[in-house]
């Protein structure tokens, strides 16, 4: 019995299915799938391709046994005249064998004479894996004309694999979108001019944006230990841990603020600690289930980055005085310190603060600060306007 007529074993089928789902998680492994598919069906070559059905542009191509020059020629030239593309405009799972379902005029076409025959890929078995908008996903195995048509067992194997290929391509698409969203979310957080740290209930950082890394790296004596962030003074470390535990309680709605000072180096950082329950859907590729608090960190008066008062006035319709107050609060200053700096009474500032709450639809100072630090006023500096 020749190898061509031997039955395809369950072991072969299971190995193909396993490789398909491996590729679903890592698209670079689709090349392994094409190789296994070609070898399992005693084919000369195999391919998987994502292509736009209108422009014929090849979005992705995974091949085995196809010369790289022909792969390039297809993308740059022959894709536009491929007579096989219109034949797959059916629902996913549709299959055809070229030797049986030869399109009219195919063997007289330039595509056949100058592309298929020189590669000795005259016979093809393939089908439509997925159709999403203008994009289609195709699978095909190729064989020399003299080797005859694909037999029933080979046709049946590819038919059985089609639903798995469809699911795997869908998984690929979802993961690509998720990774794109996660990258976008990280880029947004890294653009913030305020440090952001996501921590678990034990205070251990699970995510640190670029500004937080910069701020902490420039503050002398900070370490990261089993209990999270450790400051030069034990009292500061304990204060941060207490704040994190406080806001990590179930249904916690309040926030906490603290200022950490290192007198020896004349350094100070302001930290706002808020519960993370309202921001679980950040789109980051990290396990948000363990995160209970978010820390907003800046260096207060020593910071080169400030909330844009102009943006606050434009977006929230704050007066200049209200914008100045809001920006100062977001910078970690207390009402007492602001009153001293601006030479105003705390009663006047509280009146302005109430107006800020109303215009920003917030009710507490922590809510206002959270809004400002996560909004466009923290992304744009006045000099960029």
Structure description:
With 385 residues, the chain is of the alpha+beta class. It has two domains: 180 residues, 2-Layer Sandwich (Beta-Lactamase); 201 residues, Beta-Lactamase (2-Layer Sandwich), CATH 3.30.450. Helices cover 41% and strands 20% of the residues. It contains twelve helices and twelve strands. It has a five-stranded antiparallel β-sheet, with helices on one face. Strands 7-6-12-11-10 form a five-stranded antiparallel β-sheet, with helices on both faces. Strands 8-9 form a two-stranded antiparallel ribbon. The termini are far apart. The C terminus is likely disordered.
Outline the fold blueprint.
Elements: H1 10-25, H2 30-40, E1 45-52, E2 58-64, H3 68-76, E3 95-97, H4 110-116, E4 123-132, E5 135-143, H5 152-191, E6 195-200, E7 205-208, H6 210-217, E8 223-225, E9 228-230, H7 234-247, E10 256-262, E11 267-275, E12 291-298, H8 309-316, H9 320-330, H10 335-342, H11 346-360, H12 365-374
Antiparallel strand pairs: 1-2, 1-5, 3-4, 4-5, 6-7, 6-12, 8-9, 10-11, 11-12
In short:
This protein has 385 residues and is α+β, with helices and mostly antiparallel strands. It contains twelve helices and twelve strands. The chain is 41% helix and 20% strand.
Features:
20% strand; 2 domains; Beta-Lactamase; 41% helix; 5-stranded antiparallel beta sheet; 385 residues; alpha+beta; disordered C terminus; 12 helices
Largest sheet: 5 strands, antiparallel
From the helix content, strand content and strand pairing, which structural class follows?
Answer: alpha+beta
Number of helical segments with 4 or more residues: 12
Report helical residue fraction.
40-55%
What's the average pLDDT?
Answer: 82
Q: Just give the CATH class of the largest domain.
A: Alpha Beta
Report the span from N to C terminus: 78 Å
User: Which architecture of the largest domain does the CATH hierarchy give at level 2?
Assistant: 2-Layer Sandwich
The number of strands is 12
Bin the strand percentage.
15-25%
* Name of the CATH superfamily of the largest domain: PAS domain
- The coarse silhouette is elongated
User: Could you tell me the radius of gyration in angstroms?
Assistant: 31 Å
Tell me the count of domains. Answer: 2
CATH fold field value of the largest domain? Beta-Lactamase
Poorly predicted parts:
301-305, 380-385
Largest sheet, spatial ordering of strands: 2-1-5-4-3
Report the order of strands and helices: HHEEHEHEEHEEHEEHEEEHHHHH
């Amino acid at each position: 019995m020749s190898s061509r007529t031997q039955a395809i074993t369950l072991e072969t089928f299971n190995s193909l299915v396993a490789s398909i789902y491996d590729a679903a998680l890592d698209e670079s492994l689709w090349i392994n799938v094409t190789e296994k598919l070609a070898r399992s069906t005693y084919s000369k070559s195999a391919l998987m391709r994502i292509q736009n059905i209108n422009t014929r542009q090849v979005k992705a191509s995974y091949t085995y046994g196809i010369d790289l020059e022909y792969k390039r020629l297809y993308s740059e030239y022959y894709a536009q005249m491929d007579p096989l593309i219109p034949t797959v405009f059916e629902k996913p799972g549709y299959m055809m064998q070229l030797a049986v379902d030869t399109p009219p005029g195919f063997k007289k076409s330039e595509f056949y004479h100058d592309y298929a025959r020189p590669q000795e890929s005259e016979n093809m078995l393939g089908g439509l894996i997925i159709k999403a908008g203008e994009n289609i996903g195709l699978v095909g195995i190729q064989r020399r004309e003299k080797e005859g048509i694909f037999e029933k067992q080979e046709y049946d194997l590819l038919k059985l694999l089609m639903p798995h290929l469809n699911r795997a391509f869908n998984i690929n698409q979802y993961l690509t979108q998720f990774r794109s969203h996660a990258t976008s979310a990280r880029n947004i957080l890294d653009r913030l001019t305020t440090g952001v740290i996501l921590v678990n209930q034990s205070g251990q950082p699970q995510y640190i944006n670029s500004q937080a890394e910069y701020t902490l790296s420039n503050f002398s004596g900070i370490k990261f230990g089993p209990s999270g962030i450790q400051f030069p003074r034990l009292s500061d470390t304990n204060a941060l841990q207490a704040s994190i535990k406080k806001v990590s309680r179930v249904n916690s709605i309040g926030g906490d603020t603290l200022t950490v000072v290192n007198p020896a180096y004349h350094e100070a950082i302001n930290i706002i600690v808020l519960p993370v329950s309202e921001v679980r859907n950040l789109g980051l590729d990290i396990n948000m289930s363990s995160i209970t608090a978010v820390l907003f960190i800046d260096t207060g008066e020593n910071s080169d980055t400030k909330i844009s008062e102009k943006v606050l006035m434009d977006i929230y319709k704050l007066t200049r005085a209200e914008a100045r107050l809001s920006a100062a609060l977001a910078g970690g200053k207390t009402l007492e310190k602001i009153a001293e700096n601006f030479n105003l009474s705390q009663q006047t500032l509280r009146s302005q603060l109430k107006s800020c709450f109303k215009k920003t639809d917030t009710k507490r100072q922590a809510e206002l600060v959270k809004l400002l630090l996560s909004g466009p006023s923290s992304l744009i500096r006045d000099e960029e306007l």
